[in-house]
Amino acid sequence: MSNQLTELKQFSIIVADTGDFASIRKYQPRDATTNPSLLLKAAQMPEYADLVNRTIADAKAESAGGRGALDVALDKLSVAFGLEILKIVPNRVSTEVDARLSFDTAGTLAKARSLIARYEKAGIARERILIKIAATWEGIQAARQLRHEQINCNLTLLFSFAQAVACAEAEVKLISPFVGRILDWYKKSTGRNDYPPAEDPGVLSVTKIFNYYKKFGHQTEVMGASFRNVAEILELAGCDLLTISPNLLEEMQKTPGTVVRKLDATAARSSALEKITLDEKAFRWAHNEDQMATEKLSDGIRVFAADTVKLEQWVQTKL
């Protein structure tokens, strides 16, 4: 009998949400994503000590021991893990820009170009890289510019419909709406401990975004992310991509059964959604009106920034 993971792969592209190479090999996703939290965890695993030590040594040599050694080391570490992942997955890896650049368009552009240059120097075509950027107005504008340079982006920490519309209008390659973190907020704010999968606020958010994109012909790919349980994932079967943590991939692989498509591009075209357009003022107001999205975006940036600082402190001990 088929299992849930095999069944789901008929409807959605599966992406591994991890920096652990062994997990990626086990579940055979098409793509993989990383972030500072995952990178910090993976870099401290004993089996990757040689890779980390080689990368740190290369960073020291490249920076000649200068003040930029830490920045070089962090970039080289992100790319080193990305390169190893690309030996396993057949398509793309997402590499994240420092979250502290979330409100700095110029800084985001510079970092994205630097990361792409490192990948290209290693012989990797830019089509295989997604530069991961927080979906702030500044991040979306950076992604708009990078698209013109054939640098594809993954807009992350996406919680509001306004963020999704702005990303589509900027023609970014891919967005990562965060299902589980939306559910977390609603549970905390309402005191409600349980939502049926079809009523899960995160599921409803991604469904609306998917239907809007398909109805109005937006080419931006939708990748559901940040899942808390398998039920959320199955409720989004048919979404373009789904990035899933190893523990949930394992649960699905061990669970026999069939999976039913829930999201369908053809059906989406008959939805009642109306097309909207957002300039900066309209975007900021619409996003601000969504309390959940405002709080979760801010919190997500702080968490990723804090994990970047932890990674810096850990790498500093190696320099």
Overview in brief:
With 319 residues, this protein is α/β, with parallel strands linked by helices. The chain has helices spanning 4-8, 21-27, 36-43, 49-63, 69-86, 105-121, 137-148, 161-169, 179-190, 201-215, 230-235, 246-254, 265-268, 280-288, 291-316, and strands at 13-17, 31-33, 93-96, 129-134, 153-158, 174-177, 221-224, 241-244. It is globular.
Number of strands: 8
Spatial separation of the terminal alpha carbons = 51 Å
CATH homolog superfamily = Aldolase class I
Going across the biggest sheet, name each strand in turn.
1-2-3-4-5-6-7-8
Q: Counting H and I runs of at least 4 residues, what is the number of helices?
A: 15
CATH-defined architecture? Alpha-Beta Barrel
Alpha-carbon Rg, integer: 19 Å
Percent of residues in helices: 40-55%
Written as H for each helix and E for each strand, in order along the chain, the element string is: HEHEHHHEHEHEHEHHEHEHHHH
Number of domains: 1
Indicate the CATH class.
Alpha Beta
Shape: globular
- The average pLDDT value, as a whole number, equals 95
Briefly note the structural class of the backbone. Answer: alpha/beta
Q: Can you summarize the main beta sheet?
A: 8 strands, parallel, barrel
CATH fold group: TIM Barrel
Poorly predicted parts: none
Report the portion of residues in β strands. Answer: 5-15%
